[in-house]
Design a protein that fits this description.
35% of the residues lie in helices and 21% in strands. By secondary structure, the chain is of the alpha/beta class.
């Protein structure tokens, strides 16, 4: 019997709600339909609660620093485009999360950048020379990091996947589900969510 695939979703102060909750809905539905997958919210700090950009409060399941093995880690966006220094910009500024992302990626974790969560991956040096996309409001910033910017809804570069803004995270999650667990499961989840999948995927 193989171990369940372990997927973490990063929870930090100021994350964009739908960037995280949309994919969580996808992966949770997949798990309930038989996918051998665990899904957990991982905080970047030692805290019992994390407040998202629009006021949603979540209770994380654990801490990123304590995650010794992850098959996938999803980084949501939030706070990048307004230049306020909160959300993703705060993650980049403290450097600790960037170090954790580098460590996990080197250990074999597939990284998923949703919306401006892709900018966090880029600032960690993980997208240099690689095809990637982010929210349209941050495309110029992404280009400045040395990423090979692609106009697409979802970009699959093997062990790093990125997508456009906000709702594109649902498309990324459904695409990953199809890639790892099969088309039938991905289609079933999309159907129960009444979501029309985008076929605008580059790579894979």
């Amino acid at each position: 019997m193989t171990d369940a695939k372990r997927l973490g979703i990063l929870a930090f102060e100021g994350f964009e709600e739908l960037d995280a909750v949309g994919p969580y809905e996808v992966f949770g539905n997949a798990r309930d339909r038989g996918a051998d997958l665990t899904v957990e919210l991982l905080a970047t700090e030692d805290t019992d609660r994390v407040s998202a950009a629009l006021g949603l409060t979540v209770e994380p399941d654990g801490r990123l620093s304590a995650a010794d093995r992850l098959d996938y880690l999803l980084v949501p966006g939030g706070g990048w485009n307004d230049g306020s220094g909160t959300g993703t910009r705060a993650l980049v500024a403290d450097g600790v999360t960037l170090d954790a992302l580098r460590r996990l990626h080197a250990a074999g974790t597939t990284l998923l950048g949703v919306c401006t969560g892709g900018m966090v991956l880029a600032e960690a040096g993980l997208l240099a020379g690689r095809p990637a996309v982010t929210h349209h409001g941050a495309m110029a910033d992404l280009r400045e990091t040395g990423a090979d910017v692609v106009e697409a809804r979802v970009v699959d570069d093997g062990d790093v996947l990125t997508c456009g803004g906000v709702t594109a995270g649902i498309d990324l999650a459904l695409y990953l589900l199809e890639r790892e667990f099969g088309t039938d499961l991905a289609d079933a989840v999309a159907s129960v969510m009444e979501y029309d999948r985008s076929e605008d995927v580059v790579g894979g």
